[in-house]
Amino acid sequence: MRGFRSGFRLQLSFFRNYPDSLIPLLTAPLFTVVFTMVLRHGGRGDLSGYAMIAPFYMSLWWFAIFNGGWVIQTERWEGTIEYLVAAPVGFVSVIVGRISTMLLAGAVAFGEVWVFGRYVLRTNVTIHHPYVFTASLVLTLIAMTTTSLFMANLFVLSRTAVTFSNSASYPVYLLGGILVPIALLPGWLQPATNIVFLSWSSKLLRGSLSAGPIQGAAFDLSMIALLAVVALGLATAFMSRILRHARSSGELALR
Amino acid sequence: MMSSLRVMRYSVLSGAYDYTSIYTWKSWLGGWLVRVMSQVTFFALIGRLLGANQQIWFLLVGNAIMIAAMEGVFALNMVSWERSTGTLPLIAASPTSPVLVLASHGVYLVVDGTVSALGALFLLGPVFGLPLPWPRVLLIIPLTILIAASAYSLGTFLGGVVLGFRGLNSVVVNVGIVALMALCGVNVPLDAYPGPIAWVSRFLPITHGLIAVRDVLAGDLGAAGLQALAEAGVATGWLVLCVLTFGRFVQRGRRNGSLEFAT
Amino acid sequence: MSPRPQAVTVIDLVRTFQPRKQPAVQALDGVRLDVDEGEVHGLLGPNGAGKTTLVKILTTVLLPTSGRAEILGHDVVHDAKAVRPLIGIVFGGERGLYTRLTARQNLEYWASLYRLPGAQIKARAAALLERVGLAEKADVKVETFSRGMKQRLHLARGLVAGAKVLFLDEPTTGMDPIASREFRTLISEIRAEGATILLATHDMVEAEVLCDRVTLIDHGRILATESPRSLGRLVSRFQRVDVEGADRELLDRVAALPGVESIVESDDGHRINVDGDEHVPVVLKVIVEAGVVDVRTSRPSLEEVYVGLIGDRGLEV
Fold this sequence. Notes:
Chain A has twelve helices and no strands.
């Protein structure tokens, strides 16, 4: 628990001291403007709720990769990882603590787009299904966090981490149906959307904003939860292996 | 003059070489190009939500060309990169104008941006049924290069601006790109903006060039020519601004010591 | 009653590295070492000798290929969890600190990782920053620190949890002579507080001044473990009397004294090699009575020992 708290607080001070960390909070309002403009100019102002939800996911994804995913690798570059391993507090708990700040960052990102959309752009949105909405939101934040943890480990093992970080954004937005529902994607892409938890999440959030009944909410929620658990399982499997290998090969620190 | 050209040539080549160390053919195609195509598709599909083909095509063209501009803005990173490798003070102290060196170092961005943008346009256009009338569609190629170069001038100028501030270049790049997406008629036509904003857009890269591209596709080559000239004017303007102010930015960086540190 | 465990025990430690597509590197080749509690023990050797590898294994950061090591009775491989709260680490260098955080923020974070109670963390960090001379820069971002300042912050971090065994790896690299001297004073204070210190270095003066015993290591093997003074005996068993301004007649008289092995001309006078401490007083008496006052006795310096045993490699690493 100690390690978790220390890591959590450390990451919060990174948010304050590295301007990069907060890029999504600056770009999200701009994206909201772009999407809203397109929808309103195209005569579908009634879909402006979509324009608010998409930037939230874009922020989440950014946090997951750049704040969470790179945590272990940056410790290696900074040269702090050996000290971390040698400290009494568990290495894993510190990393988990650092990445868990995503929950907070994601919540702030959501608050921001909501306030901006509702009160600045005066978008007409009502949450017709508050329980589903809240449940989806919470599960999404959790899933994003466990996915980020998985990525933190993946980036240590994979040589294509940099390429992935720069390239994964829009493909994931597409497969996640964050703005345009996945039904509008070509048929051959549909299966891939199932393993991207964003697709289940965006379906639920959009559904909660419309007046009609929501179909299959329980199933969709459990899919998000399942994918969150899968990410967590993979992360756990990798993390101890990485640590053991690093200690025995002497490749903890990167030169 | 000759030595300046030599410096520029070397700078261009070294920038291109560095680029190959970031991307291989496989990672460029499988990573970068996939991202580019996804980005354009992401926006184009909004048109499907809206219903008409015209909407889809408008968004498709706008966002494909935007890719070239996006890479142009990456020029900002060139400047910061020089600072982090410690070569900026050396360039600033050398007899050749620093703007020349920095500007040439990132030329590969203009090339890459153009190739990516046109790749997206010509690969996705047919998928969405966008009419690409031959042969006038070839005019889009020089227009795209112009737009990329125009954004590149802006990027280099911004690179100078952030010289005095540590750790800000990533922020400015990202915010800058999305701001251009929002302001330059990429996703909605210029007349959709309130008056004052439309005026600001006219002085930003992309705006005129993009209208020119749309005019070419629509067959109005005369109007396209005028817009291309306007874009060239905007590009020149930012370049001149860059040359005029860069020295001062470097001075400021020298004064507050920020030239030395890595970002 | 069982004897108290040694602070550090190393038995037949072997560590091989297998870099990709390169031949294997034998960093440690059967190292045996004992460090007593409260001792300041130097690890002296050139770059690549294996000092850092040994320190990393002892601090549980690296696993050995074979052999055993214990810190205060706890095995570093199987009982790493028990070892970690007991040790402090100072690897030094440019990296290892969060550069965009302040000195204070860095230190408080590490203090929390060493399970210091929340109430104590701020006070301990402030006290340590004061102690290493960084109090004025406590709230300045580390990225602006000079090399020497970073070294001091590394040292503060090593001390943050009141470690029983402190590992220092080249701690004064990059420090100016005054800072180095202050650092040495600090080490003496820490030692006086009862800590055991293992100091890996290639600075002779530091080793000579600070260490109770010095272990010479090269190519992953221990060459010798002695006190700095007696290390000198490995190179020359003679006591030396250096004299300036002695004339021929005096020197001939001295040469005839019992125990005088030889007289050699040196840069600024003569060196008299005396075989055995017991003969030195007589030699000194003769010289002083002749009116010559420029007299010094010495043993071979650590540097001579080092060069003599490890050899002169020039710039080769």
